[in-house]
Amino acid sequence: MNDIMATTVKDDTLRWTSIVITCAAGNLREGVEEECKRLSSGGLLPPHDNLLVVEDPQPLSSGSADQEGEKGPTTGVGSGGATINAILVAAERLSAQLHHTTVTSEVVEGSRILVVHIGRHLPHTPGGSVLLRVSPSLSCVPPRACTTPPTLLQHNIWMATKMSSKTGAGVWVTSLDTFIPNTADLRPPLIEGCKGAVVVTQAASLQHAALHGVVVTDHQDNISRMEYRMPLEELNKIFRTGVGRVISGLVFLSTNLTERLLGLHTQPPLDRCTYYGTDSGIAPLQMSLYFDLLAPLCCGTSYDQYVSGQCGAMYSQAASYSSTSHQESQAARMQIWKHLHGLKATLHEIKGAEHHYLSSGSPYKHSIMPLLPAASNSFGDSENQDRKSDVVTVNGIIQGCVTPAADGKVIHIIDSWIGEGVSLTSTDSCVLSGVQLLSEVSLNMELVGECVWQMYPSEGTVNTVTCYGMSDDLTATHLDPTATIFNTTWSDFFTHTAIEKKDLWIDPDSKNQTVLTAKLFPTSLPVVKQMKIMVTLVRAVINDQFQVDWKSTLAEWRTSQRTSIQNLMNKCELMNLVKLQEAIYLETVKKYIMETADDMEGKSLLPLFNYIVTRPGGEAVEQILTLLHHLLDSPRPSTSRLLANVADLLGCLASGRGGLRSGPAANPQWRNALMLLKNGKQEAAVELMLEVCKKWMKSGNPEDLIRAARHYERASQIVIAQQVETAGQHVWWWRKEKVEGVGVVGMGVWVEAACPARLDLAGGWSDTPPICYEQGGAVLNVAIKVNNKKPITARVRVIPETKVVCVLGDWCGGETRLTWTHLDHLRDYDNPMAPGALIKAVLLYCRLVDPHSSDSLASQLRHRCGGGVEVEVCSHLPQGSGLGGSSLVAGTLVAAVAALLGYPLPSHTTLIHATLCIEQWLTTGGGWQDQVGGLVGGVKLGVSGRGTPVTVSSYRIPLSQQFIYTLSTHLLLLYTGKVRLARNLLQTVIRNWYARDPTITSCFAQLQQLGVKAAGAMLEEDIQMLGTCIDRYWELKKMVASGCEPTKVTVLMATLRTHCLGMALAGAGGGGYLYALKAGPQQLSHNLQLGDLTCDCVEVDEEGLVVQVDGQLLSRPTDENEILTKEQLVKLQIDVSLVNE
């Protein structure tokens, strides 16, 4: 047994104390452990404390091996014995963890234990039922645990977890012999005060029920008896509706029952059901869970019926229970009856889910095909039925060519790798499972359809290829007239191939001469040769035209060393299969990253990274890291996203142990690489970054991984800034000729500018780079005066001293005076924390001075202005107000500086794009909505489209004076008193955008659509709809920036709710101003509990930015802002819808 400790899943609502996986075949244990480690470490299982893999007690070795596998798999302790053994092992582990020295049955009282029986080795996939892939659309595995395509083991564990959601302590038992599909009608049982067992059943036709175990109940739904393969005549008498209740394979055992079962391990001969018997040197005893252990709980079962073995007679015969241990079985049943009788078994029926029993005897077409995906998936996606194709890959790689020969036929490629030199066609639908035909293989072949092709890994260098028909019952003896091989009768097979029985089975008297045990498959030949022989054989069976080809191949087939599917199953190295599947999966991840490198849409890589970093050895991480840097060798539209992907990979590798992702990113070891990137030398920059990254990774410290991630995010920000600066193509005022006869404003003359604040009413965040040019943005906002004045002011003048004097005013009336006399004083403009950084960035962007010039600051100022410059700026808004203060300061100051230098007043378009570029220089990375909202008066819709150069258009919304008055009187502005700092928040939002978090990407699409919808409400002057849009806007904001609604604000909003049509925090949220659209123009009631908060006066500002020189108002250029019409709005709605399809 082995213990694989808890997953990292944090949701403890359905946490298992122990999950116990039982292996009936000893050769599977190590492989099952490997698979369980993969699932557990990868976070693909429900939360659990202990994960144990337990080998069932095995029959004592006879000293001779079954070389040919003709006897079939050996029998062990059965499902009942395996359950007792699993409970014992779990109880021992829990007792040891509590430092008990003996097994204490009380440990089960507060424990939730899940027992999963692997059951018989299923031949329909090389790894058996443990590795069987199932359709995500049928699976119970949640999307977060579907990073790899779901397996039957995963599904059954999650199904049991779902069914246990209304139960507390106890034991749930499930088996991989069954598959219960996930349906909308699936309901867990409500178990209160259960003192026995709850058997989960499914409805099935009586013809189907006659082949399986059925449950018969009394009038109160207590289980009267359970029978296996009840005759159809009797079923018709009991189930008069024609629908029977079939045992699903899922059952709940109460703590009371579990303690009694645990006690059985000390009662001979039941000790032989546990490893105690094996370690005592005695043979195991077979017991059925349903027909031995649970039968005494059935109210219609008598003592004599039970002890004599009548209850489970049919099952004992079908399961090949040993007939030599009749007396021991009777003794065991006497003990079971003594300990368990008196407890009660009830049932819980699952509605709307088809019963699937998986066995060797059930043909592939009927048992496995219905469970396979209808569309390709390598990452567990819930397949879209519209994406059906003729080649379906499930964790598969196709580098060569695979095509069905006929329309409507499907080839499934499961856990397989088809190399470049391979071309396969098929005459009909077929399945390739576990087939490895790598690049060094050259093969051009037409496969026979309706067949399942599998490959078993070998201990040597050559793997073994097997094939059988989809309609074959692999366990039916060739003497059975209904039995088939390669979908045709055995008699036809022998006739058409000249193969004799002695070629297939050594023992002529064996009663187990089946497809499973037939030595059909060459093992010592190269894989290509094996496949050619098998294709020739199958063709000869179904088509006389190919018998000549087979006759020339028969001698080679006879002389080759051959084996059977049964023998391959018995010797299967499951661990090798797990590793092969992992190698394929890694290749699919790499292929996906390469194919979607320039796709700005696509799925999130974070789940893939979170899984990849859990793979042992680190080779997978190194391969992904190298691939991402290879993709970054040359500039591409997705460069910034790929750099963010590297940061995410490093963050996942740190596993939350290295601190916060946001932080400084200017380490000297990274400086040269970042500088190369800024200068456009991307290939050299990326090469250097990889070198430094690998060096930091070698330290093994999670802190170094997070610090490296920050530098990749910084690199991403540099590239984003370069993209945003393409907006500079719309900034041309300094290239214009100055107004004739007008130069720099005279010495000491003030150029003064004032600008309103803005309220974002809908669509904010969609204006943020890179979203604004990768998806596109649409924001509705309004310019406002606060307390009857424009709150943003800037003024500049020329002074005699050749220096720059900067005066920074604040909303409290204070001011900070800064003086800059050297160019070095201005060169920290890209550090937002540097005093006056925003002013420095504006002055440099306006070409007032050149920081890279060899001329001194004084010389440049004298040449440009005839003296020094004094700048005064003030935002009469609190810091972090959310009303766009800092961006509007930049835009307002640009307009003032342009006028100072004698240029015509820049257009709104120029100022909007200039401000966008300035904020990139400043490295604050803001969007464009602030400057659109404040610089342009009134209500307007700002829009940016996909692609570069980044282009922002603004549409003024024509409103009646009456509605403007209505809007002003209905607006409410409250300062919350909480300071909102958005820098780290912005980093987080961009990080989530590039991680392609589905919630975030959907949210941004809705924000863009809402911006246009709200503009429509404004255009219609529909204040009710506008309020609804504002409310929805706030809900979307909270999705983008989790935690942006402080508790104080939540309480405030609840107080205002009945008095307002809609409300939100301005800007990014988290603090600053709350604005609302009141239900009426009247003042709020004095009875409202607003604490110490007061309402600021707010009104719509139709004028926007104004600039004066020496008190004379400068005329604005012709308004280049389009007027939004209904026709224009419809076009915008269509454009936005197309972008977000």
Compact summary:
This protein is of the alpha/beta class and 1141 residues long.
Written description of the protein model:
The longest helix is centred in the middle third of the chain and has 23 residues, at 702-724. Helix 13 (490-497) packs across helix 15, helix 28 (885-900) packs across helix 30 and helix 33 (998-1019) runs antiparallel to helix 36. This protein has 1141 residues and is α/β, with parallel strands linked by helices. It contains 36 helices and 44 strands. 35% of the residues lie in helices and 19% in strands. Strand 38 (1060-1065) and strand 39 (1073-1078) form a beta hairpin. The strands form eleven sheets. An eight-stranded mixed β-sheet has the order 1-3-2-4-5-10-7-11, sandwiched between helices. Strands 33-32-34-31-28-42-43 form a seven-stranded mixed β-sheet. Strands 29, 30, 35, 36, 41 and 44 form a six-stranded mixed β-sheet that branches. InterPro entries: GDP_fucose_pyrophosphorylase, GHMP_Kinase-Related, GHMP_kinase_C_sf, GHMP_kinase_N_dom, Ribosomal_Su5_D2-typ_SF. It holds the Pfam family Fucose_pyrophosphorylase. It comes from Petrolisthes cinctipes (Flat porcelain crab). Residues 859-938 form the GHMP kinase N-terminal domain.
Give the SSE layout.
Blueprint: E1 2-5, E2 16-23, H1 29-41, E3 48-55, H2 78-97, E4 112-117, H3 152-163, E5 170-175, E6 178-179, E7 197-205, H4 206-209, E8 213-217, E9 223-228, H5 232-238, E10 243-253, H6 255-263, H7 275-279, H8 289-293, H9 303-307, H10 313-318, H11 326-340, E11 345-350, E12 356-357, H12 364-367, E13 391-394, E14 397-398, E15 401-404, E16 411-414, E17 417-418, E18 422-426, E19 430-433, E20 436-437, E21 443-447, E22 451-456, E23 464-469, E24 484-485, E25 488-489, H13 490-497, H14 501-504, E26 521-522, H15 527-542, H16 547-559, E27 562-563, H17 565-570, H18 574-595, H19 606-612, H20 619-631, H21 639-654, H22 668-678, H23 682-697, H24 702-724, E28 751-755, E29 757-762, H25 771-774, E30 777-786, E31 792-799, E32 804-809, E33 815-820, H26 837-845, H27 857-865, E34 868-875, H28 885-900, H29 908-921, H30 929-935, E35 939-944, E36 952-956, H31 961-970, E37 971-975, H32 983-994, H33 998-1019, H34 1023-1040, H35 1047-1056, E38 1060-1065, E39 1073-1078, E40 1095-1096, E41 1098-1100, E42 1106-1109, E43 1112-1113, E44 1122-1123, H36 1126-1139
Parallel strand pairs: 2-3, 2-4, 4-5, 7-11, 13-16, 14-17, 15-18, 16-19, 17-20, 18-21, 19-22, 32-34, 36-44
Antiparallel strand pairs: 1-3, 5-10, 6-12, 7-10, 8-9, 22-23, 24-25, 26-27, 28-31, 28-42, 29-30, 30-35, 30-41, 31-34, 32-33, 35-36, 37-39, 37-40, 38-39, 42-43
